[in-house]
Structure prediction request, 347 residues.
Amino acid sequence: MNPPQQPRTAPSQGTGRLVDGFGRVHTDLRVSVTDRCNLRCSYCMPVDAAFRPREELLAYEEIARVVRVAAGLGVRAVRITGGEPLLRSGLDALVRLLVAVPGVGDVALTTNGLLLAEQAERLRRAGLHRLNVSLDSLRADVFETLARRRGLDRVLAGLVAAKAAGFGAIRINAVSIRGLTEEEIVPLAEFCRREAFHLRFIEFMPLDAEAAWADDRVLSGREVRAILERHVGPLVPLPAGDRGQPAVDFAWADGGGRVGFIDPVTAPFCDRCDRLRLTADGQVRNCLFSTTEWDVRPVLRGDADEAAVDAGIAALLRACVGAKRAAHGIGSTGFERPARAMFQIGG
Prediction:
């Protein structure tokens, strides 16, 4: 294993931006609002998951305050995640708070889609900009094998409702697992081409609660792309519009839209990572695979005046960014799985 890369510069302190020791400027914040979910996807959570009590979760006003301070330090994009965020009551109220934060120009939501048909219109009226919907298969039996719950028909109904509500550029996220999802690749691609959805394939990561991940279960983005080109058509690489974007995008040569590949295992993008994460229970993380967290709840819920609270949040965010490592280290002998699984961190 190569020795850990050392920071090139000292992390920023007291500046208007969140810059780590490797020069990465952080402009993206993923905000989990709950660890609860109405599915039990094998790559994310156990069947018998235990959840945080409600009083440990951040209130919407607390989330908005952290986002406001982060925006003052250069954060421009916010993604609402879970668990399943649509299980949190009145989520449109949080969307309204976030889109009103000065400096935040993009508020998106990642959902499994089961409750989307009922909430798509409210979310759109609240100002939500974009939707990412997780969908690994169009076959009910495979969907149930992966999600360990039924619900494919509800996800598809949610996508119909989202389009009717006026959401454009809807992204479909599909996890690729060797031995499980190879036959889902082409049908998903054809479905997304027909419906004008932006499909993205994501490599299976070691964040499953049951520790079933193994390197030989990773179906690489390169292999998925080869299947697509063999059975659907040629793909043309697209220039990166946003350097921090984890997906490498391709366009169908026949003009049938685009498809992206997020390959954190076989082609890590750590060198351009620009994101932080806020868990539902108020822990700030600088990486999905971080083994350290910074608890913002004592700052938010202390007795300090408003200015002191904002200063404390800013100091905590800077400390978190300043401690960020060069890379997650998957595949190295020193890699350590985080204690939390994906549903507890936020996708």
Remarks:
- The radius of gyration is 20 Å.
- The chain has one domain: 28-345.
